[in-house]
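Follow-up to my post from last week.
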Amino acid sequence: MANDDMVWEELPKIDADPPRMRDKCIQCRRPIPVCWCLGLPNTRLSPNSRVIILQHPAEVKRCLRTAPMLTYALEPGKCLTFRGKKFPLPHHEGLADILKDPNTVMLYPTNDSVALDTLDPVGINGQKPYNLVILDGTWPQAKAMFHGSPMLYSIRSCKLVGLPTSEYVIRTQPTEGCLSTLETGTFALSILEGNSQLKDELLRPLQYLCRFQLQNGAVTHQSKEWRIKQNTYPKLIGKRLAKQLRVLPEVS
Ligand SMILES: [Zn+2]
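User reply:
Got it. Predicted complex:
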């Protein structure tokens, strides 16, 4: 498993940036030729709800992070990022209050998670704006963050259901239905706000980036799950993952 995980951590780095040093965009900090800022909305969006990103420190080092696309597409204060492995830490100003707020919901699968679209959108039945908590990291990181943060246990946990395949075509997703942070935040926010137009605007930087990368020779990756099912995935996979992804024999 360890080797396998490392490969997946390496992949985004390979695709992300050209090998030589270039000038960087002052906003997204990416080399100018692969900056996605032109895909951002002309005016920052101001939904009623807020997105609260709890980010694993290792996520900062990834080349193809998508959380900043959400940060820069929304009005200041509408997307807050707190970094750590546990939450809240003493320097996470205001986070404890957010986590205790009855209008706070978290995207995290637990036995009690409810489908996000069963919640009242803002304004319906007197629903106040939400704080949407997202754990930003790999799945094992997110799991560790959750278990290390008892204050998260009592937040209403929600899940996104019936989602499209990731548009993040230049990064191999570990399983079908695994979305980038931007996509997760965007779909969830659109549902909570009852505003599907938010999606079109918020996903544009990602589409912009993917289109650019594909035009410039990046390879479209199918998800790992898809490739294993198609028997085209060349690398040996771990036993646990193989078990998880095992395709049952077809009944004729
Ligand atoms: Zn930029």
